[in-house]
Amino acid sequence: MVTAINGYDFARKGALLLAGTILSGVPAFAQTAPAAPPSTGPAAAPTGAAARNGATRVAPPVVTPVGAPVSVRTIKTLRVEGSQRIEGETVLSYTKLRVGIPYTAETLDQALKDLQASDLFADYSIAGVETGNIVLRVRENPIINRVIIEGNKALKSDKITKEIKLAPRQIFTRTAVRQDIARIIELYRRQGRFAAVIDPKMVNLDQNRVDVVFEVSEGPKSKVRQINILGNEVFSDDQIRGQMATKQSRLFRLLSSATSYDQDRLSYDQQKLRQFYLTQGYADFRVTSAVAELTPDKKDFIITYVVEEGKRYKFGDVTVDSQIRDFDNTKLAASLPLKKGDWYNAKLVEDSVDNLSQTAGLFGYAFTEVNPEFQKDAETLTMGINFNIAEAKRTYVERIEINGNTQTQDKVVRREIRLAEGDAFNSFQVKRSQDRINSLGYFADKMEIKQLPGSAPDRVILETNLEEKSTGELQLSAGYSSLERFIIQANITQRNFRGKGQELRAGVNYSSYSKSVELGFTEPYLFDKNIAIGGDIFRRDYNSFSFNGNDRQTNYSQVSTGFQLRAGVPLTEFWSLSARYGLSYDEVSLDNQFLNPDGTCNRLQAGNYLCDAIGNRWTSSVGYSLSRDTLNSRLRPTAGSRFSFSQDFAGLGGDVKYIRTRLEGSKYANLGSGFIGSIIAEGGYIHPLEKSPGPGRDPIRITDRFYLGEPQFRGFDIRGVGPRVLRASYINNADGTQTVQTSRDQIQDDALGGRAYYLARAEIEIPLGSGARELGLRPSIYAQIGSLFGIKQPLPTATFDFTLDKNGNPVYQPLPARDAANNIVYNNVYTPAGATAPTVRQTTCQTGYSATPGATGAACVGGEVNTVVPGTAPFQETFLGNSAKPRLSVGIGVNWNSPFGPLRIDLAKALLTQKGDDPKLITFNVGTQF
Fold first, then answer.
1. Consecutive H or E run containing 203
2. Of the candidates 210, 238, 45, 232, which has an alpha carbon nearest to the alpha carbon of residue 140?
């Protein structure tokens, strides 16, 4: 792998150096030995350290008698040879050799050991042993130029390089190479690849540099082929396997990471098994052995657990022994979730400890110790528990520390903390403060307020460690929506403007059916008082549409320009009151296809309901909202509830008069194992404050009504629920009969909205593995119920004359065509003078023709009987959907924070519908950020 080290290994160096010194015949090492006659033969090869380092050959060795004293020499001079990057003094500092000190073989041997221990040298030796002029000769370890990893696919190079020690510009050592190989293999084993092999190589470069190459052979991913359970009698193998994090490799778990073998997960599964049995009453349960065997092909593991279930216990006497005099032991015991006679459950014991600690915290005892004492009776199979609450002093907040906020001002965080320095400690207020800070959305999720001991036993320090995240959003997006087709959006929002918690936003949205420009600002604490104020100005262009078959067609346009001012104050910790005033100017006009040549509404084309909507009007409204909010987060709640009652009164000036009332409520709960359940309900009603403008005309204009459908009511198309008018044409058959069009694709569908609605949704968010969570996937299943209703039935647009067919059924006739003065137009057939063929001309005369064409009131001359020019083809209008009967849908959806932007896909099936509703199975919305 690397160039061999030329220095002696420790044992060999010591032995050779000692032998060479003793046998060399150097007088200093054998003062008592007689001089030997000079040898006439060839010189003996040098031995020992001096010989090995190229010292001058010496006379044949003289054997020193055993037990003869060995003289000790003194270092006369000391120098270093061969060092390039390292100073000579630095090399010497790693040894104990110094000029003027005596030395022996052991001294030199230790010096060589010290040089090797430094990990700085590839070769090292000592010369000048005989003369006392000691020379340390070294060859430095090379410098690493590059560390290259090849053959890795399952693990990216950057994940490996940050785990190993070798790096460019560091000194190369064999020890570091061995350690890095072991670390890389460990990384692959954590990925479930136990067949991984690492082959290290070194490429020598000039200037004593090397490239280190780790050639990786990853091998197949080792799966868990089988999990065997031995010794279980109460629960089946499948029940026990279901409690484990490790899963058996099966085809339907192709994308799951839980099928890979992990030693840490094996230990975790043993804990999970014990927790499971302890919650079922088996207090004596234990795992006697857990063995993982790698198959001979190194592809899979077989795991075998041997368990002892033991007997099942019930709770015995449950008591509380509190050393805190404020507590009533009997009442505390009665409030606990575990009861005598119930099956023993360790989870209930943990919950009881937490409940007692929280109860103590509510009374100001921050560091209360609750110790459960167990009295197990193996004969009666009962587990008595006494919760011992240790004596504690009432605790007060010494100080509140806020750390980590570099942009956000301290006061923005402190005003959300429900305790002040000097207040009595209260665990509920600490939890509430934590939730309020998390709800700001300025900091990383799951921030916790730590409770640290203060300067005295009755003092506590509340430490808030924050990690700020970006609160400014600049988004340019383009996408496609099943609601509005192509969408372009540009929005900028700063939710923590100037670090003061202020919100500033601006947005431009454009699509085929809507356009808007909005500016808004909110100050949550006016003059550092708990009063929020804000305002918005806007212009919104909205094109309402109907369906003619699968094609959308615009029917009316609404342009709203206005502003809104709002203010809010808290009433209590959870209740708040807000008020608002808005003024807007609405311009409602019909599409050209519904207009007469003179610009008036063509009721035959548009319908009475659309013609009644057109016009310009001012809306001046004042409103209020009363809310109660206990959610643990306003962004992604997992616990708590929210209720809101709001009313808006339009009629403080302006042209519109009504009272709009709305109720909204939501409840979230953590169902365990990562499942989040929620129930959301809302409803509303608009009460008119002006009389009906006429028969078949509702006093609440079509632009002010509620609408229901996609996206809030999944399983139905946009505005697919509630009152509507379906216009179907008549089809004339060849046999003289007539039928009405029944294909929904060929029927014009106009949603009219409603005065009242209700909508409720029950939803469960499904947890996924860590990989899916990193991708931002959040699937859920849900059921929704709702309805929209409460308007007057509009008058029919037209009444068609009819004749009877051979079966006595009506055959409806087209309406006659009319001129600009609303006169019926006829076809007059006549033969011009000198012509042989008749021709057709149009006239308003029922017989003959006008003597003065174009003149008003001109007399009709001639006796020809004219025929009516057919105008509007007959159609059938049906008013449907105005029913409070519930609509029901169930479905599954997924939110995905994709690389292309947020995406939502829903697959929802409408199970209960009313006639006229427009169900829709699949909806999606996606945008692209750039």
1. strand 197-205
2. 210
